[in-house]
Design goal:
Length: 803
């Protein structure tokens, strides 16, 4: 297997023709593919990388550097395959549990573009990190609700419920109120606490393991260039793809928060009993000490999260070793002491009703709402410093997505608690007088607002559907004029116009997200107030109101309970199928391809950032080839389709300035402006894309009106340089049946840009543009110079940080 870091180290023939050797680096998009499909050859060989991500060539091209005459006028194709970073083995199914964490991490990167607002930028990052912390507490609190409250406290403490669950027999008291050693409530709670504690440990393990597997790649060393430092965009900073310090610190804080949540669920219940029962003074004192220690631990966790976020101007190699070790260990020690305290013998203690979960879940919901509102205020302040009408939701995209992450976390936690309660009780209806009281009434209220929310979403979708139909009908008569000389076909025109209209729905996504988030916030606030004021489930709280409101409350509660249960079952079923079925796992991998491009700056338990492996891989590959060919002025053409164009742009920003000036970009089906530029304006906004256009040699972009993902990049070139965007490509290439095309041409949409002649035409122009006009002088050293390069990244299938 050749070592392509030092290719062409000897041989006079290679030295005579090096400037004519080009490299085409293919990088697939979302969904992944195989190197055989990318290279169009069943015989491939891995030349660099491992099982997770690697560079492949056709077997016949493995020694292409030694045969430069065979590649005159054509590039050497290579394929970079990274799909296993997101849809590899069955353990990826566990990432579904981390979906709310991934969504809140996206909100962190949706910060609006700002000018001279460093403190406000830091405030934005802090608010998102605190929102992420509440999601961790919510998840662990939901596990505590299921294991500690519903199972150990309510069901095991109720003889009728425990009699139907033989596996709870050793925890249940007998008819006289007494039983075995484990039957005392405190000991039951201590034993059940092992479940949420194990969940917290699992989250810590996954975060630690995925960091080592995905994000511990050393980025390309950066040159010391003062001018480059001044003008460098965030994605070009040396530490952008290496946030080890922040992830390690947040991992310690969130792990400690999880253990403290479990300790609070068990310890505060025991302490409350000791204060009310007038028991031994020692236990009462220990209860107060425990409460104070839990508060102090929570303050320490918040302060750790409060500390400054990412440091992108240098690699985060320095770790707070004492902090990341002692904070989780201290919280775990406190949890163990709490379990020992709760397990102290209290023969007079009996379990009745619910544990005080309303206050816990209500407090989390209130804090989350306040954080989202504060985040919206900060986002608006940032947006006003550099307003851009193309920015999604006028800068409110981050708060809107943060709200959706909180709602998603609430649905997952409430759905799990509801289904376990139904399973234990059998009544299937909260507040119906079953053997147990069920989950806190707030969770029932939150489930009850799902039907009205779905009504709003359905109305929005219907409105968008009508607009899409009208647009398709309006554009249909104009389709035949784009294909002069061909016979008009009404059905064909209808299909083309409908495809274009549906593709345009992508530009309406901000409206859907914004309205959904706003309605979710209002309904969530109403549910919180209703639960706190009435302390009853909606159907009982509506008793005595007019029949319309009473019926609406009962219907909404019944539908909400069914919907949240169905959603939870669907979620679990999907995860189980993904664990066993690679094709289903690939579908989930598409979601991760889009959502895990960004580093984990807001939540350490989010799925790992594949770009922290892929971008250094691409940068190192291009850098080593370019450095090997610097004697003949080797240059690069980086071409990318779909998500590959985002990786190509990110890799180009990480190149040395002297290398980047010899780079050309060819993007197609690219979401760089349409999605990333609108939703992540601070990093892919007009200023960032314009700077990339100025810093590379040339940039051409291909797009189609039928593409729902890609679009124009809308960069206005400086001076007399070529336009970035080529005119929209025809799709389909042929309108109807012709002698040259007797069968109907497919509507390609987001895929197969290589099938359009414009692709080969633009690539050839870039290769010709980059070819040195005069051969570079031979180096004086004994070692001959390396070949000139061109890199084209072609994917197969579609889609100031935190401070």
């Amino acid at each position: 297997m050749p070592d392509h870091t030092h290719i062409g180290g000897s041989g006079t023939v290679a030295a005579d023709h090096r400037e004519e050797t080009a490299l085409e680096l293919l990088v697939h998009g979302v969904g992944g593919t195989t190197p055989e499909e990318m290279l169009g050859d069943p015989r491939t060989v891995r030349i660099s990388g491992d099982e997770t991500a690697a560079v492949f060539r056709r077997t016949e091209d493995a020694d292409a550097e030694k045969r430069p005459d065979d590649y005159r006028g054509k590039p050497v194709p290579e394929a970079y395959v990274w799909c296993n970073l997101t849809s590899g083995n069955g353990s990826r199914a566990l990432w579904l549990l981390l979906l709310p964490f991934m969504v809140v991490n996206l909100a962190h990167w949706m910060r609006p573009t700002s000018r001279r607002m460093r403190k406000t930028v830091r405030a934005y990052g802090l608010l998102v990190r605190l929102t992420g912390l509440t999601l961790t507490v919510l998840l662990v609190a939901a596990a505590c609700e299921v294991a500690i409250d519903l199972t150990a406290w309510q069901c095991a403490g109720t003889p009728e419920c425990a009699a139907e669950r033989s596996w709870l027999g050793f925890l249940a008291p007998d008819a006289s109120g007494h039983g075995g050693w484990w039957s005392q409530p405190g000991r039951r709670l201590a034993l059940a606490a092992l479940v949420p504690a194990a969940l917290t440990g699992l989250l810590w393990y996954l975060s630690q393991r995925t960091w080592s597997a995905y994000e511990s790649q050393t980025p390309l060393p950066h040159q010391d260039d003062p001018e480059e430092e001044i003008g460098r965009t965030a994605l070009g900073r040396p530490g952008f793809w290496y946030g080890r310090r922040l992830v390690a610190r947040l991992r310690a804080a969130h792990t400690a928060a999880g253990f403290l949540t479990v300790a609070a669920a068990v310890g505060t219940s025991a302490a409350r009993h000791d204060r009310r029962s007038g028991g031994p003074a020692l236990l009462d004192t220990l209860g107060w000490i425990l409460d104070v220690t839990l508060v102090l631990g929570g303050v320490v966790v918040v302060l750790v999260v409060w500390r400054r976020g990412r440091s992108e101007n240098k690699l985060d190699r320095h770790l707070d070793e004492k902090l990341i070790r002692r904070l989780p260990l201290g919280a775990l020690t406190l949890l163990v002491l709490t379990l020992l305290y709760a397990g102290w013998s209290r023969p007079e203690w009996t379990s009745e009703g619910r544990l005080p979960g309303n206050a816990t879940f209500g407090g989390i919901a209130l804090v989350q709402g306040l954080l989202v509102i504060a985040l919206a205020v900060v986002a608006r302040i940032l947006y006003r410093t550099a307003p851009d009408p193309r920015t999604a939701l006028r800068g409110f995209a981050g708060p809107a997505v943060a709200m959706l992450s909180c709602a998603l976390g609430g649905v997952m936690s409430g759905g799990g608690a509801q289904r376990v309660a139904d399973w234990l009780d059998g009544s299937g209806e909260p507040g119906s007088g079953g053997t147990i009281d069920g989950p806190p009434v707030l969770l029932t209220w939150q489930a009850s607002v799902i039907p009205p929310l779905l009504v709003v979403v359905a109305a929005l979708c219907g409105w968008l559907g009508v607009r899409t139909w009208r647009r398709a009908r309006r554009d249909r008569p104009n389709i035949p004029s784009e294909y002069p000389g061909e016979q008009k076909d009404t059905a064909r025109s209808r299909r083309i116009a409908s495809t274009r209209a549906r593709a345009a729905l992508t530009d309406r996504a901000p409206l859907l997200v914004g309205i959904t988030s706003a309605v979710t916030l209002l309904l969530g606030a109403g549910a919180l107030v209703g639960a706190w004021v009435s302390e009853e489930v909606p159907s009982e709280a509506a008793q005595g109101l007019p029949l319309f409101f009473e019926g609406a409350a009962e219907t909404s509660q019944a539908l909400g309970s069914w919907l949240i249960g169905f959603g939870f079952i669907l979620f679990v079923t999907w995860g189980r199928r993904a664990y066993r079925d690679p094709s289903a796992r690939r579908t989930i991998g598409i979601l991760w391809d889009v959502g895990t491009f960004w580093p984990r700056a807001a939540h350490p338990f989010a799925p790992p950032c594949y770009a922290e492996r892929a971008v250094p891989d691409l940068t190192w590959r291009m850098h080593t080839w370019t450095r090997a060919t610097r004697a003949t002025g080797g240059r690069l053409v980086i071409s990318g389709h779909s998500q590959g164009s985002v990786l190509a742009a990110a890799a180009a920003w990480q190149l040395w300035p002297s290398v980047r000036k010899r780079v050309a970009l060819l993007t197609y089906g690219s979401p760089l402006e349409r999605l990333y530029g609108r939703w992540f304006p601070a990093h892919f906004g007009p200023a960032a894309l314009s700077s990339l256009h100025r810093e590379v040699d040339c940039w051409r972009n291909l797009h189609r009106p039928t593409d729902p993902i890609g679009g124009p990049v809308r960069v206005i070139p400086d001076g007399d340089g070529p336009q970035v965007d080529r005119d929209a490509l025809k799709d389909p290439l042929v309108y109807g049946r012709t002698e040259e095309h007797p069968l109907p041409a497919p509507i390609l949409g987001h895929g197969d840009y290589q099938a359009d002649p414009a692709f080969a035409e633009e690539r050839a122009r870039l290769l010709a543009r980059l070819k040195p006009a005069v051969p570079a002088p031979r180096p004086q050293s004994v070692e001959p110079a390396e070949p000139a390069v061109t890199v084209t990244a072609v994917p197969a299938d579609p889609p100031d940080t935190a401070g």
